[in-house]
Design a protein that fits this description.
By secondary structure, the protein is of the alpha+beta class. It has six helices and five strands, in the order ααβαββααββα.
Length: 124
């Protein structure tokens, strides 16, 4: 995962544009119900410089870090880069574990779990 904005990729502007939406999904998910938002696929396709890139991803984050890191997609990495710049996102991820899933239909689903619960289940 990237820690700075100098190495951002093509999807960073999309996530930056929708940062308020993602933050609202995060806040609303704290009530225990996963929240979803449908993106326009053309925005991701237009930003894509690789014709064979997959856009879908699953991302689990807590305290500004990706949990269970694998080779992260550029789409997920750029989302993390935007979240790391947000004081509100940092505050939220310090207290809870967040799960972000972007499916092949460009539906972003955000869910959360209190950090203490996640730690007891071996989440960290």
């Amino acid at each position: 995962m990237r820690d700075d904005t100098t190495d951002t990729k093509e999807f960073y502007p999309i996530w930056k544009k929708y940062r308020p939406v993602v933050l609202k999904l995060m806040v609303d998910s704290l009530e225990g119900t996963p929240q979803s938002y449908k993106f326009s696929g053309h925005e991701f396709a237009d930003a894509n410089t690789r014709k064979s890139a997959a856009f879908s991803f699953k991302l689990e984050t807590h305290k500004g870090r990706v949990l269970h890191p694998k080779k992260a997609s550029v789409v997920a990495s750029d989302l993390m880069a935007v979240l790391k710049q947000s004081a509100k996102a940092t505050e939220l991820t310090d207290a809870s574990v967040f799960y972000f899933v972007l499916d092949s239909q460009f539906n972003l689903t955000v869910s959360s779990k209190l950090a203490e619960t996640a730690s007891e289940e071996g989440g960290e």
